[in-house]
Recover the amino acids of this structure.
C-alpha cells in the first residue's frame, strides 16, 4: 500500500510517497525561502500563491522518484491543521481533487503530530507512549502521546514560539531569514554566559507552558536602550558582541526547553522523549538534550535535520489513522489554528 502525502502548512511545498511499512519511495520539498527572505519573514499571500504553482510539479517529481504513477496511490493524506489558512487550502484542495479523481480515501494529518511522528519514522521502531516536544516557527508544545492517535496537550506557548523568537532576535541582530540557523552559526563564535538573559516561566507556577516574548524584549534592550533606535544601535555593535548576544539568547532558550521537557517526563512518569520541529535542528540544543537524557536515563528520539524542518514524509502518521479507519469526507476543512485539542 502507498500513501501520497501533501504538506503545505507554511512555506514549504512538499510531497512524499510512503508505503505501509514506512518505506519512503519518493520525497520532495520545494522551499520558498528565497521568496520570503527579503521580507524577513513568511508573507502568507506569497506563500499560498507559490504553493499553487508548485504543488502539482512537486507531486509529479515525487512519483517520478518513486518510479510510480497515480494508479499506484492507495490513499491521499494532507496536513489540514495548524498552519497559514491560504497555504493549508492549497494542499487540501489538491488532495481532495486527487481523491475524487482516483476514487481513493482522504486522510487528515495534524502537522504537529506529524513532527512527532518523524521520530517514529527515523527510529524505525515504536516510540510510544512518550512525552513529545514540538518546537517550530509557529509552535512550542509539549504533548503526552499515549499512541500515534492520542495526543494530550500538556503545555503551549502563551506568546511567541521558540522558532519565532529565533527569527525575531536574528532580525534584531541584522542576521538573515530564517533566523534559527543564522543565530546558531553566529553563536558558535560567542560566549553563552556573556549576558544573563531571563529563563521565562522556569519557576514551578509556570507549569509546562512557555513564554518567549520577554526574553526577546530583554535581547532588544541589550542591543538598544529605551528610546534608542534599534537599527542605529545595531550598526555600532562589534561582531563579538553580536556573537555573545546570539549565544546567550540561544542558551536561555535551550535551558527552558530542556528543563520543561524533563519536568513533563517526571510529571507523566515516562522515560521516552521525542523532539521535533525546525528548532530541533539546532545543534547545541540537540547536544544538550542528548547529555541530559543520558544523565537521567531517558530514551531520546530526535529525527535527522531533514525530518525536523517541514517535510511530507512525517505525514506518514496518516498510515496509523488509515489503519484505524479514520478517513475523511471530501468537505474536510482547513483549521489554521490555534492548536486544536486532539
Ligand atoms: O518546523 P518548521 O520547519 O516550520 C514550522 O512548522 O514552523 O520550523 C521553522 C522554524 C523557524 O523559526 C526557524 O528559524 C527554526 O525553525 N529553525 C531553527 C534552526 N533551523 C530552523 N532554530 C534554531 N536553530 C536551527 N538550527
Ligand atoms: Zn512545522
Amino acid at each position: 500500500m502507498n500513501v501520497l502525502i501533501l504538506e503545505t502548512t507554511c512555506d514549504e511545498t512538499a510531497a512524499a510517497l510512503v508505503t505501509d511499512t514506512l518505506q519512503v519511495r519518493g520525497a520532495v520539498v520545494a522551499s520558498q525561502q528565497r521568496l520570503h527572505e527579503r521580507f524577513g519573514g513568511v508573507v502568507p499571500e506569497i506563500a499560498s500563491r507559490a504553493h499553487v504553482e508548485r504543488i502539482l510539479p512537486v507531486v509529479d517529481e515525487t512519483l517520478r522518484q518513486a518510479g510510480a504513477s497515480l494508479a499506484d496511490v492507495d490513499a491521499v493524506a494532507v496536513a489540514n491543521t495548524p498552519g497559514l489558512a491560504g497555504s493549508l487550502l492549497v494542499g487540501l484542495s489538491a488532495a481532495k481533487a486527487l481523491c475524487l479523481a482516483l476514487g481513493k480515501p482522504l486522510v487528515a494529518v495534524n502537522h504537529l503530530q506529524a513532527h512527532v511522528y518523524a521520530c517514529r519514522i527515523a527510529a524505525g521502531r515504536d516510540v510510544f507512549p512518550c512525552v513529545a516536544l514540538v518546537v517550530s516557527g509557529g509552535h512550542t508544545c509539549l504533548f503526552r502521546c499515549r499512541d500515534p492517535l492520542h495526543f494530550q496537550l500538556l503545555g503551549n506557548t502563551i506568546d511567541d514560539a521558540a522558532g519565532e523568537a529565533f527569527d525575531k532576535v536574528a532580525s534584531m541582530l541584522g542576521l538573515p531569514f530564517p533566523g534559527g540557523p543564522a543565530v546558531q552559526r553566529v553563536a558558535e563564535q560567542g560566549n553563552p554566559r556573556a549576558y544573563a538573559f531571563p529563563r521565562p516561566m522556569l519557576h514551578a507556577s509556570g507549569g509546562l507552558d512557555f513564554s518567549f516574548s520577554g526574553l526577546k524584549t530583554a535581547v532588544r534592550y541589550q542591543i538598544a536602550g529605551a528610546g534608542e533606535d534599534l537599527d542605529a544601535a545595531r550598526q555600532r555593535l562589534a561582531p563579538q558582541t553580536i556573537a555573545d548576544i546570539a549565544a546567550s539568547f540561544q542558551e536561555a532558550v535551550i535551558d527552558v526547553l530542556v528543563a520543561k521537557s524533563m519536568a513533563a517526563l517526571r510529571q507523566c512518569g515516562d522515560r521516552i522523549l521525542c523532539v521535533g520541529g525546525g528548532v530541533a535542528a539546532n545543534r547545541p540544543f540537540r547536544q544538550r538534550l542528548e547529555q541530559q537524557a543520558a544523565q537521567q536515563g531517558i530514551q531520546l528520539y530526535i529525527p535527522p535535520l531533514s525530518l525536523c524542518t517541514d517535510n511530507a514524509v512525517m505525514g506518514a502518521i496518516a498510515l496509523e489513522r488509515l489503519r484505524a479507519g479514520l478517513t475523511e469526507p471530501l468537505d474536510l476543512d482547513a483549521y489554521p489554528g490555534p492548536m486544536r485539542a486532539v
